[in-house]
Amino acid sequence: MFPVNTWYVACSADEIDEKPLGRTICNQAIVFYRAHEGKVAAVEDFCPHRGAPLSLGYVCEGKLVCGYHGLEMGCDGKTVAMPGQRVGGFPAIRSFPVEERYGFVWVWPGEKDKADPALIPHMEWHDNPEWAYGGGLYHVKADYRLMIDNLMDLTHETYVHATSIGQPEIDETPCKTTVNGDEVVTSRFMSDIPAPPFWKAALRAKGLADDVPVDRWQICRFTPPSHVIIEVGVAHAGHGGYDAPAEHKVYSQVIDFITPETNTSMHYFWGMARKFNPGDKALTAQIREGQGKIFSEDLEMLERQQKNLSAFPDRALLKLNIDTGGVQSRKVIERVIAAERGAS
Amino acid sequence: MFPVNTWYVACSADEIDEKPLGRTICNQAIVFYRAHEGKVAAVEDFCPHRGAPLSLGYVCEGKLVCGYHGLEMGCDGKTVAMPGQRVGGFPAIRSFPVEERYGFVWVWPGEKDKADPALIPHMEWHDNPEWAYGGGLYHVKADYRLMIDNLMDLTHETYVHATSIGQPEIDETPCKTTVNGDEVVTSRFMSDIPAPPFWKAALRAKGLADDVPVDRWQICRFTPPSHVIIEVGVAHAGHGGYDAPAEHKVYSQVIDFITPETNTSMHYFWGMARKFNPGDKALTAQIREGQGKIFSEDLEMLERQQKNLSAFPDRALLKLNIDTGGVQSRKVIERVIAAERGAS
Amino acid sequence: MFPVNTWYVACSADEIDEKPLGRTICNQAIVFYRAHEGKVAAVEDFCPHRGAPLSLGYVCEGKLVCGYHGLEMGCDGKTVAMPGQRVGGFPAIRSFPVEERYGFVWVWPGEKDKADPALIPHMEWHDNPEWAYGGGLYHVKADYRLMIDNLMDLTHETYVHATSIGQPEIDETPCKTTVNGDEVVTSRFMSDIPAPPFWKAALRAKGLADDVPVDRWQICRFTPPSHVIIEVGVAHAGHGGYDAPAEHKVYSQVIDFITPETNTSMHYFWGMARKFNPGDKALTAQIREGQGKIFSEDLEMLERQQKNLSAFPDRALLKLNIDTGGVQSRKVIERVIAAERGAS
């Protein structure tokens, strides 16, 4: 169902600032917390003493303390201490490689010794004064691959997001998908069209006219295990489209980190990094709210789609040209899973 | 569990006026909508493209449009069009015979070529100025046959509906059940008794004395698959009871269309057609509200009964004389199901 | 999972004063009610007529009347009467031995002829003017043995109940467990320590200084099937601790009757009998409220622990010295169950 020898986003960094966080990732109940000097740590959410969830406990001097009988857990899964007990013989619980990066905690749910932080993809917008970022998290009761399908085919914008970013020209313009190794790219370039409401607002925010024809682009980039980064933007028509000089265009990256919770549910981390008016916090909040609303429109569709697919697991679905991005991404996922299995 | 080569009520006509309606009937997820010129149509609630529920879509120029990627579905289950696609090779989904009649949409969940609209039972009260109708819908988590049992034995009124239509004389008066082919009739005639609260109000509504003895009747008529029409009324005692001239009596038909949703749940369409004061809309609303309340009193009993029966599926129940109506109705249902199986 | 030839608390006596009560005990759905002259009775919650739950009915002249069709059930499980029916041949339903004692209804869910009311444990505080009692009921979605573990090891007070009865000295003081036949006793005696908030308030309530060192004791006594009575108290230090004269100490019994509902849920009857200021009803209410809050703090922990254990049923847990009380209690339970099986 999903690769495990890979990095997934587990939570945003601030979710563990106050107390430990219990979250299931790839069918494993894990507790995330800040250990010594705030360094992120992750172990099984299961106290080796009596099976209580460690996420109901608290952190004291960098150690995770079980809220039931005070067992102190180390970030390597070995019990450090327990009042009145010798803990040397206590069985260890599993610990998980974690890294804090780009405002997120990343977790490696598979074989520990294969975890290499260098494999976490680079995000150029982080800590970059030319960019601003805002985002959120949705829990969705659907196979994470349905979200990849969704994001690798923006045709659905015309229907699901008709009042914000959808427009008939999306349907009318063919998309093109290419596969480069493990990367799948689906792109669509629309020329000389009106800007939909979301982009009109973005043009105005940058002080550009919003009532003139634009060139619009969507470049969806899937990388394993389940990241989809989408370059989106519009430029006043006639200035080169995607390649237009900065003063004629507004553009962003839609950031999607999709983490399997179980076989039929996911944690969906969505956001937008934009390269215009980066200092305008009110705009960041406004875009975040708008994007949150747009993305929430997909949730019922995906959850109901999942129910239909669960009811008819053997029913063949169509694989049209517009589905190529999702189909190719799923092939990459299958290849990665097969490689994992072959290696172990 | 239930016949399928038969007509069931799927929804009231106005439930699909604004947008498509997804509803499970006999374990099949179906979407009902108004196609060309408002004609009712029903197909599987499963888009052949990616399995999205078509009921989350909308109707455009008589075609059902999937809300995910814009596939246009015809009422025969064949895809009509999809933006940028050739749809000739798309697999068809199942369509269902439907008819709009008596303010309801009727659906035939079985073999399409056996569907004959002439088999929909005649309702004399519909579009008849001498009658008025009001009703509603309850979703009940119980085998639909428990509702048939309930309605074919009005003894329970004494206990479940003590404050409205129940009275001890019901228990004290034996009922009689006859079977005529596929029709089962259970009737009870009570003579010279006080009218219970519901009928007192009905007498007053027609300008008749409510404090004099009455003759009261209940004639429950089951026809397959699961319709129960109950003639009910009271006449001032001594004028011939059921056969009394119209000026001495008030009477109605209780209308019950019971549609299996799953093996242990149902859609229960209830209503009352009355033949007095038909033009009095306030009275229609008042009766509807009262009947809705009375019928809701049965729901907890049936749902809890279902839980008990599910916990003890092999436990034999009693079949008393008062249960004969339900027992005989179930026999008819079994015969109809056996005939369906023999034929196919 | 649980002994059945034994007495469990089914409900508090006032829960059946107004109407019958349906409650599942040891996986059996039972209805409890007051029959002739208020005597408690218990039968299966399943009407032999059509399987309706008798707990939806009412009591009339000492007979339990089914709320569906008026069947009158006797407290021996035999149908007494039914309107218009001869009931001689009706199948009996199961009846259960019940006793009302100490403000509770006790039920024997196993073999009827083995039920001996003399086996109900004696409660010295009941109907005793020197004592006052207050308590409540929690439904907990966890194996009842997790609550026994919890109560037979009060180490957890330090962590779960840090602001009321917890204090570090509990952890620092070893406990001692002894087994006397079927009785398991875990005790802890702490000397010359500050009183925690709950006991400070109790000292003040009795007019004793609350800012002086105290000796504190906890004596947890398990008896089968699942009763845990805990003697708790503090005495001003230097007067003999547990054995100090009454004027120097405040003490109570924590009463815990733990009744399995299903294999993974329980009814938890908790309370406190205290031997100071017994006439002070406001104090009774205040202690009851405080105890209810303290005990509710355990619920999430136990329910989440149950989820973890259900997810990993084969994972071995630790059995530390602090767990000895629970471990020994579970051994007694296993022995009782084995004896039951051997005997039948």
TrEMBL record, chains A, B, C:
A UniProt-annotated Pfam family: Rieske
Class of the enzyme per the UniProt entry, highest EC level: oxidoreductase
GO molecular function, one term: metal ion binding
InterPro entries per the UniProt record, alphabetical: Cholesterol_7-desaturase, Rieske_2Fe-2S, Rieske_2Fe-2S_sf, VanA_C_cat
EC assignment: 1.14.14.-
Keywords tagged on the record: 2Fe-2S, Iron, Iron-sulfur, Metal-binding, Monooxygenase, Oxidoreductase
Domain Rieske: 7-107
Statement: the UniProt record of this protein carries the keyword Transmembrane helix: no
PANTHER family in alphabetical order: 3-KETOSTEROID-9-ALPHA-MONOOXYGENASE, OXYGENASE COMPONENT (PTHR21266:SF60), IRON-SULFUR DOMAIN CONTAINING PROTEIN (PTHR21266)
Name listed for the protein in its UniProt record: Toluene-4-sulfonate monooxygenase system iron-sulfur subunit TsaM1
